[in-house]
């Protein structure tokens, strides 16, 4: 048996400047191997009972060795491709005789033993080609030196290997349930709900299991490391390290290897410039997302795009070992957007429109008579709304509208206008829209740039307040209303009061103060004042001013909260 150690040592000597012991399951040494798995990244030795990550250059095979010390020993070897398909085979090496060729009984020199090892093919036990997570399992294996040879013919890639002589007790990979499929239980326009069976590793063995869901638009993944490799694709140039050189943390990071234990003092290596003689790869950003949800086995994926196909994968992760198992993934296409009904606009008639939060609304205007231009009045009652206008498919207008806006559109005989309204993220939007080929008689009331109501604090008494507001050059009717409000004036009430489209017809008659006509050709003097009387001492009042246009359409100024003096 000592000869096995000599043989493996002769293989390791060219790879390292210092002697490295053969990994075994001997107590303290094995614990060291588990803590320092990074030592084996660039080694030809696979430690017993620890998963390693390593790399392959295209068309460049690599060999790894694993020791089985006694006959009739269980053996399990698992290979996980993390990017490209792999070709791999496991063989049992034929070892040279223990005595020397001259019959002296002394061991042969190390370099001669190494030559004998590499020249012999060995007995092939298992082979595989593909990108599945595949494993070799034997309940009784002979002692000896096992060789794992891997090859990638597509591109440079990396992979993971796990080998153990105690597969029954280790159980590092979570077990799949009897039904390993991910089920799609419901599909919406922007959501998909997934469900799957619980792992027996969590329910029976009481091991800590976390489920991670991966969503993308390309394909399902066979392993979590394949998904994470895709996620780590950089939008900058990736520099591939040269074979045979020691790898820096930068090299491992760009091959998708974890760099948590490699220290933060190498952060300046994050974006090195490509060096002469090294291959440069372009890694575009990919649309992929991973969400870990704990022990839940039902999850709703949200914020998806309508009428889009998505692929869903679920992985069980043993949080003690950080090793994972994949469910059989699923895919689904989200539902199409509900077809919008198009609202027909009548020439010169105001139309009330409600757009849902982040929703869309379509309106159509088809003038009956020939026209040179179309005037479009849009009154966004509360928040900003995106407006887009097309004439016979040609884009004429695309703007965000807040308050009242007027647009002049060039006409065309028999032209048809399609108006698209898109709501914002805050909440539902209310609008009043008027389209006409005769704007002179049907215009919305014009507003000054400043629609605030000014209150004069020095003129405030126990029973009255004096306010002022700006007018325009057009003669318009202004109506002022008051409403007593208490201390519990809620945010919802404040939001409602901001609605400029709520006209005087929504107010109680007892709240009306007065109506009057007012205008001034000199905008500098277009200011009017009014004193509201018969108020109660120490009370708060909400004041509103409405300007009324042709046809009775009104617009509300910004509300003003005032308070009378308590003592006079």
Q: Averaging pLDDT over every residue, what do you get?
A: 79
- What is the radius of gyration? 38 Å
Q: Could you give a short account of the major beta sheet?
A: 7 strands, mixed
Number of strands: 33
Number of helices: 8
The CA-CA distance between the termini, in Å, is: 108 Å
Helical residue percent? Answer: 10-25%
Q: Which structural class fits the helix and strand makeup?
A: mainly beta
* Strand residue percentage: 35-45%
Low-confidence stretches: 1-6, 11-25, 27-42, 107-114, 234-283
Characterize the overall form: elongated
Main attributes?
568 residues, mainly beta, 5-stranded antiparallel beta sheet, elongated, Protein NDNF, glycoprotein, repeat, glycosaminoglycan binding
Question: What do these coordinates show?
Answer:
The longest helix is centred in the N-terminal third of the chain and has 11 residues, at 2-12. The chain has 8 helices and 33 strands. It is elongated and about 110 Å long. The chain is mainly β and 568 residues long. Helix content is 10%, strand content 39%. Strands 19, 20, 21, 22, 23, 24 and 25 form a 7-stranded mixed sheet that branches. Strands 11, 14, 16, 17 and 18 form a 5-stranded antiparallel sheet that branches.
């Amino acid at each position: 048996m000592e000869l096995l150690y000599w043989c493996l040592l002769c293989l390791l000597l060219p790879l390292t400047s210092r002697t490295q012991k053969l990994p075994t399951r001997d107590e303290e040494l094995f614990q060291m191997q588990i803590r320092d798995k990074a030592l084996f990244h660039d080694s030809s030795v696979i430690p017993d009972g620890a998963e390693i990550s390593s790399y392959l250059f295209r068309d460049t095979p690599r060999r790894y060795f694993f020791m089985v010390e006694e006959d009739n020993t269980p053996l399990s070897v698992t290979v996980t491709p993390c990017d490209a398909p792999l070709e791999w085979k496991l063989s049992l090496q034929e070892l040279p005789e223990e005595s020397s060729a001259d019959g002296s009984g002394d061991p042969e020199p190390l370099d001669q033993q190494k030559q004998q090892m590499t020249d012999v093919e060995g007995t092939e036990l298992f082979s595989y080609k593909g990108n599945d997570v595949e494993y070799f399992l034997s309940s009784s294996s002979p002692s000896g030196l096992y060789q794992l040879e891997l090859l990638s013919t597509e591109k440079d890639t990396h992979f993971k290997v796990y080998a153990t002589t105690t597969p029954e007790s280790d159980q590092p990979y979570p077990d799949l349930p009897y039904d390993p499929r991910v089920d799609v239980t419901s599909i919406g326009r922007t959501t998909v709900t997934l469900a799957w069976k619980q792992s027996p590793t969590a329910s029976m063995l009481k091991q800590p299991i976390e489920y991670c869901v991966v969503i993308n638009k390309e394909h399902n993944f066979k392993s979590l490391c394949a998904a994470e490799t895709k996620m780590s694709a950089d939008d900058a140039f990736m520099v591939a390290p040269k074979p045979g050189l020691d790898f820096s943390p930068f090299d491992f990071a760009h091959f998708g290897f974890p760099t948590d234990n490699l220290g933060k003092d190498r952060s300046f290596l994050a974006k090195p410039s490509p060096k002469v003689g090294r291959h440069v790869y372009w890694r575009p950003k990919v649309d992929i997302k991973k969400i870990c949800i704990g022990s839940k086995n039902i999850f709703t994926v949200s914020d998806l795009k309508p009428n889009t196909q998505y692929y869903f994968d679920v992985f069980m992760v043993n949080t003690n070992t950080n090793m994972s198992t994949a469910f059989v993934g699923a895919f689904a296409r989200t539902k199409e957007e509900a077809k919008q009904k198009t609202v027909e606009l009548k020439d010169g008639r105001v139309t009330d429109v409600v757009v849902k939060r982040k929703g869309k609304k379509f309106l159509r205007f088809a003038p009956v008579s020939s026209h040179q231009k179309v005037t479009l009045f849009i009154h966004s009652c509360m928040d900003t709304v995106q407006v887009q206008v097309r004439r016979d498919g040609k884009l004429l207008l695309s703007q965000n509208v807040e308050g009242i806006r007027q647009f002049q559109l060039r006409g065309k005989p028999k032209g048809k206008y399609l108006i698209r309204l898109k709501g914002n993220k805050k909440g539902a939007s209310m609008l009043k829209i008027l389209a006409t080929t005769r704007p002179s008689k049907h215009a919305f009331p014009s507003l000054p740039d400043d629609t605030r109501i000014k209150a004069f604090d020095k003129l405030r008494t126990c029973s009255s307040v004096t306010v002022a507001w700006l007018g325009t050059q057009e003669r318009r009717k202004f109506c002022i209303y008051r409403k007593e409000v208490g201390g519990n004036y809620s945010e919802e009430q404040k939001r409602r009061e901001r609605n400029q489209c709520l006209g005087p017809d929504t107010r109680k008659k007892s709240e009306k103060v007065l109506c009057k006509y007012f205008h001034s050709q000199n905008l500098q003097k277009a200011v009017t004042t009014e004193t509201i009387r018969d108020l109660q001492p120490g009370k708060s009042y909400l004041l509103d001013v409405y300007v009324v246009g042709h046809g009775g359409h009104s617009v509300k100024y910004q509300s003003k909260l005032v308070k009378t003096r308590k003592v006079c």
